[in-house]
UniProtKB/TrEMBL annotation:
ANK repeats lie at residues 153-185. Acts as a molecular chaperone for G protein-coupled receptors, regulating their biogenesis and exit from the ER. This is Ankyrin repeat domain-containing protein. It comes from the Eukaryota. It comes from Parthenolecanium corni. It is found in: Endoplasmic reticulum membrane.
Length: 572
């Protein structure tokens, strides 16, 4: 039996990256343009892939000694089943249409059931897809079988349907709200596998479902935060971000930022100043306002204080068909990138200090208003992977030549016009040959080492260990870690905050972290410190005044234009 054949290279931080880092720039999860355009900030927010199911299987150690971890821990997928179909109907092609009754049955099955990896269970949904038995798959789904179930390799039924090129199966699984972001033991989602297979219509289906999942999650996160707000008092807190580079002598080029978070009743607001930075820092004043009193679900608005503009971050906003297709094409004509923190081998040791008499004691440090116990962090590694088998040979060579620059994510984005031309000029690869792998060969393979089912994976990986990383813990804190991460999830849906939440979801020393050092990009880490936390009794009235949570009357709403409207303007 042909075992898994994957061209996977593993690298330490490349020398070329260090040379590039000293003279280049870093994007802090926002726009690459010098103008602090609020529109690009929103685009960045909407492009975020949120955290995956906390039921994700732990990554298993590969023969290449590479341990993969989940990119999006801490997420509990919640689906809102909605359909206008009539029970028992079919479409023009005879394909079963998912109905309200079917979704209700599935939801009852999923509620309270943990998604898990199975080795010995029959996995009827997976087998029906592998054996190309559409009728059996539909019957299994109608019986209420959990569509999120994973096999021993971490693959969902949707993973298999995509890798085997079964488009009608993919469509039906998506009708049953299969998640497109769940990751397998190798760290890849079904979206990634669809891009690898490179069937454009399938990728479009997956991207459309991806936008739906993000909207569903936004609504649920806001509702969860609303429930959480009722459990703690009004407060004001400050977080300081200090960006650092692993390249000696260039950290001074990177800025720091002070984020201010305040809560009053069902209202919250966060202010911050860094919009973008390269070698020069681009500062502005942005704010997010959360209003939990708005129905049917809480609202979130993004304000540009300097420009006196705001955008309503509506979760109901629909992406046009043109936007969905362009996103799909962009995915298919670029290498797949994946950055994560490997925390499977993380350990903490209490740091010590020695007096001038030689006596040793535990080290404490003042962090803002707190006195924190300091721990040394060992084994925290940032991993960045590139996957490019879906590109033609010319484009694949380009990925290899430019991989080191791309992995640092400091080179900035290419000009939009150049990207469009490149996208139009690239030719699609033919689909992979049908697999000859049997179900027995697949399911009996070592976890994560199954034979290739679709296109042969070409992968490059870079590693970065965060040196001298520390964490500062305090015994008690007014908020729980869970409450704090929920706050950040709603009012700070930006890349750097995603990494902070991801790290806090892992096991930490006893107490609450008021100082953390985390990798946020290859070669870039951040020291995050909570400097202040005060309740309303300790604050002056103006700090939590109701006007802080309102959009001023002289602000103008900035309406996001669709791509069709932008194209129309260009033609004129």
């Amino acid at each position: 039996m042909e075992q898994l054949s994957r061209e996977s290279e593993e690298h330490e931080l490349p020398k070329e990256f260090e040379e590039h880092e000293a003279s280049s720039c870093a994007t802090f999860g926002t726009t690459d343009n010098t103008e602090s355009d609020i529109h690009t900030v929103i685009e960045d927010i909407s492009s975020q892939k949120k955290e995956e199911d906390n039921e994700e299987s732990k990554a298993m150690k590969m023969k290449t000694d590479v341990t993969y971890t989940e990119q999006f821990p801490g997420e509990s997928e919640k689906h809102e089943a909605a359909s206008e179909a009539t029970f028992g109907t079919t479409d023009s092609n005879g394909r079963n249409i998912v109905t309200d009754k079917d979704l209700s049955s599935q939801k009852k099955k999923e509620d309270g059931e943990e998604t898990k990896s199975l080795e010995t269970e029959e996995l009827p949904l997976h087998q029906s897809i592998f054996h190309n038995n559409y009728a059996k798959m539909v019957d299994t789904l109608k019986s209420g079988y959990n569509v999120k179930m994973k096999d021993k390799h971490g693959n969902t039924a949707l993973h298999l349907a995509v890798m085997l090129g079964r488009k009608s199966f993919v469509e039906t699984l998506l009708d049953y709200k299969a998640s497109v972001r769940t990751r397998n033991l190798l760290g890849w989602s079904s979206v990634d596998e669809a891009v690898s297979y490179r069937d454009e219509e399938t990728v479009i289906l997956m991207v459309r479902r991806l936008t739906e999942e993000i909207k569903e999650e936004l609504i649920q996160n806001r509702r969860d935060l609303l429930d959480e707000l009722k459990t703690f008092p009004d407060f004001y807190m400050e977080l300081k971000w200090e960006i650092r580079s692993v390249v000696p002598g260039v950290s001074y080029l990177f800025p720091s930022d002070l984020c201010k978070i305040r809560r009053r009743g069902l209202l919250m607001r966060m202010d911050w100043s860094i919009i973008d930075y390269k070698v020069i820092v681009f500062r502005g004043h942005l704010a997010v306002i959360f209003d939990g009193a708005v129905t049917p679900h809480p609202s979130v608005d993004l304000l540009d204080v300097k420009k006196k503009e705001y955008i309503r971050m509506e979760s109901e906003t629909e992406h046009s068909e043109t936007e969905v297709r362009n996103m799909a094409k962009m995915m298919m004509t670029e290498e797949t990138k994946f950055f994560t923190m490997s925390t499977s081998n993380v350990a903490y040791t209490r740091m010590k200090k020695t007096s001038w008499l030689g006596a040793e004691s535990d080290l404490t440090e003042t962090v803002g208003q707190f006195v924190a116990d300091i721990y040394q962090v060992h084994g925290l590694v940032g991993k960045f992977r590139l996957r490019g088998e879906h590109l033609g040979k010319k484009e694949d060579d380009k990925v290899k030549d430019e991989g080191k620059t791309d992995t640092s994510e400091v080179a900035g984005k290419a000009d939009d016009k150049e990207k469009t031309n490149t996208m139009e000029n690239k030719k699609h690869l033919p689909p992979p040959r049908p697999t000859r792998v049997t179900w027995e060969e697949y399911i009996n393979a070592e976890p994560g080492m199954y034979p290739t089912l679709a296109r042969k994976i070409k992968q490059t990986e870079y590693k970065m260990e965060v040196p001298n990383s520390i964490v500062g813990m305090v015994p008690t804190f007014p908020l729980t870690k869970a409450a704090f991460t929920k706050i950040l999830q709603v009012i700070a849906p930006f890349k750097q905050f995603n990494k902070l939440r991801e790290f806090m979801d892992n096991k930490l020393p006893p107490g609450f972290p008021v100082r953390l050092e985390i990798p946020i990009k290859l070669g870039i880490s951040a020291k995050v410190s909570i400097l202040e936390f005060r309740t309303s009794e300790e604050l002056s009235e103006e700090v939590l005044h109701e006007d802080q949570f309102k959009i001023p009357e002289d602000y103008k709403e900035k309406i996001e234009e669709t791509e069709e409207e932008n194209e129309e303007k260009k033609r004129k």
